[in-house]
Write a structure and sequence with these properties.
Length: about 350
């Protein structure tokens, strides 16, 4: 399951946003110790899955899920910050909440401070490993030369306060570097937490100003206001959202941003018997890799996939009607899955 960690300066609105996303209503003013985190698993809303469920009426509907983790503030206090990096390295992406509401708000400076902390944590890892590798290399052993050279480049960048995210690696280097789980190299979603009246700048303007590099995105929210919308009955919520010019809920917006940041797409399986099921894969995944998300045996024994765009299935009403209309294709191992594919796998286990 996809795991996103919410980090930020004290009182930047991390828990408020976590609540808006989780509709969990954890107490925003409760003190969270440094090693204490809140976790919530949210179902990724998808109206295509809802319509598939209506079409087939199976016993079950299974959404894809994302876990959000609300971390204590990164205060720059050495003892507290030291407890965070190992926990952060387990995540798929970081969500950095920047305060854009209240007095003396300065999202730029908060971003800089946070990014510096991530850089320092990475530098400690690099330096420790390099001591050993340098000894190896200078004694003429070359088996870890590539790793050594890549780490030297990382060190140089980090010392210049540039995140690992901004470095380019060759394929083998990238594989080696992945093992380190560099925090400054993780996909990063900057969340500008704006006052009720809205942010003075657009997401594009923030993106340019923050200049976070590749694998980064900016999402502008009004955390408190959007969280409060969760308390309203559905009808009122729709009216309020229209008044506020919001086209989607905080949760939907955050998930859409996370998916696009991580390059993820959704495909569907199932039918009337058991369930309809939404699954997540990385953009570019082949049909066997998609089958592997369901079960590793499916990947190994993959023969073919029957592929239909879900919209065609929904408009024509049944797999049989689709086959008749010639909308369903049989695809082999090379097929690259597209967002919204409805797939039936044929495999041999
Ligand atoms: N006006 C306004 N207030 C907000 C917003 N987001 C959070 N707040 C308020 O700011 C205070 C801190 O919010 P939290 O969500 O607890 O912030 P946090 O980052 O989790 O705080 P710590 O965990 O203590 O570091 C609370 O009183 C919130 O109600 C916002 O978008 N607008
Ligand atoms: Mg908090």
């Amino acid at each position: 399951m996809l795991k996103l960690g919410i980090i930020g300066q004290p009182r930047s609105g991390k828990t408020t946003i976590y609540n808006a996303v989780a509709a969990a209503h954890a107490d925003v003013d409760a003190y969270l110790a440094a090693d204490e985190v809140r976790r919530t698993v949210v179902k990724v809303p998808d109206e295509r899955l809802d319509r598939l469920f209506d079409l087939f009426s199976p016993p079950k509907k299974v959404h894809t899920e994302i876990e959000y983790v609300d971390f204590p503030a990164m205060t720059g206090d050495a003892t507290e910050v030291a407890a965070l990096p190992p926990m952060l390295r387990e995540l798929d992406a970081l969500m950095m909440v920047l305060r854009d509401f209240g007095e003396n708000s300065d999202p730029m400076s908060e971003a800089r401070t946070l990014c510096d902390e991530l850089i320092l944590a990475d530098l400690a890892v690099v330096e420790k490993r390099l001591i050993r590798l340098q000894r190896e290399v200078s004694s003429g052993r070359t088996e870890n030369q590539i790793e050594h050279d890549a780490l030297v480049r990382c060190k140089q960048a980090l010392e210049e306060e540039r995140p690992v995210r901004k470095l380019e690696f060759a394929h083998t280097e990238r594989k080696l570097m992945r093992g380190y789980g560099f925090l400054s190299g993780m996909p990063l979603l900057a969340v500008i937490n704006s006052p009720d009246a809205g942010s003075a700048r657009s997401a594009e303007e923030w993106q340019t100003l923050l200049d976070l590099g590749p694998k980064s995105m900016v999402h502008v929210v009004r955390g408190k206001l959007e969280g409060e919308l969760n308390d309203l009955p559905q009808e009122d919520r729709t009216v309020f959202m229209a008044d506020l010019g919001l086209t989607m809920s905080a949760l939907d917006g955050m998930i859409a941003a996370s998916y696009s940041l991580l390059g993820l797409i959704t495909f569907f399986t199932g039918g009337s018997e058991k369930d309809v099921h939404a699954w997540t894969v990385e953009r570019g995944a082949t049909a066997p890799q998609a089958a592997g998300v369901i079960h590793t045996d499916f990947e190994r024994g993959f023969i073919r996939a029957e592929v239909t765009p879900v919209e065609d299935l929904l408009s024509l009403g049944s797999p049989a009607a689709l086959r008749k209309a010639g909308k369903t294709r049989l695809e082999g191992k090379e097929y690259v899955v597209v967002d919204g594919d409805y797939l039936i796998f044929r495999f041999n286990v």
